[in-house]
Design a protein that fits this description.
This protein is of the alpha+beta class. The chain has one domain: Sufe protein. Chain: A (Alpha-Beta Complex), CATH 3.90.1010. Helix content is 42%, strand content 20%. The chain has three helices and three strands. It has a three-stranded antiparallel sheet. A hairpin with an 8-residue loop joins β1 and β2. The radius of gyration is 12 Å and the shape is globular. It starts with a strand and ends with a helix.
Length: 90
């Protein structure tokens, strides 16, 4: 598993910890620090075990309160970064 800590922008959580499979294809773990605890845990449960590409296609561009982003959208950025880094090492 390849893991990173991502600092999101314009959302409540201070950090999103993500882990993807060694080949970068599957979400292995997600943990939000800060923000809405229940929502962060729910999103993590929903995406863990799913393909990164599927999660990104569903959640990318999701907006919260006109911010132009959301916790879910920031998660997709974190997942893409982790995916790219995992693939570079594979």
């Amino acid at each position: 598993m390849y893991e990173i800590d991502f600092t999101p922008k314009r959302v409540c959580p201070r950090n999103i910890h993500v882990g993807v499979s060694d080949d970068g294809t599957t979400v292995e773990c997600v943990r939000f620090s800060g923000g809405c605890n229940g929502n962060g845990k729910a999103v993590a449960k929903l995406v863990t075990g799913r393909p990164v590409d599927e999660v990104v296609s569903i959640l990318a561009g999701n907006d919260c309160k006109g911010r132009g982003t959301s916790c879910a959208d920031q998660l997709t950025i974190a997942l893409r970064q982790a995916q790219e880094q995992a693939r570079a090492l594979a």
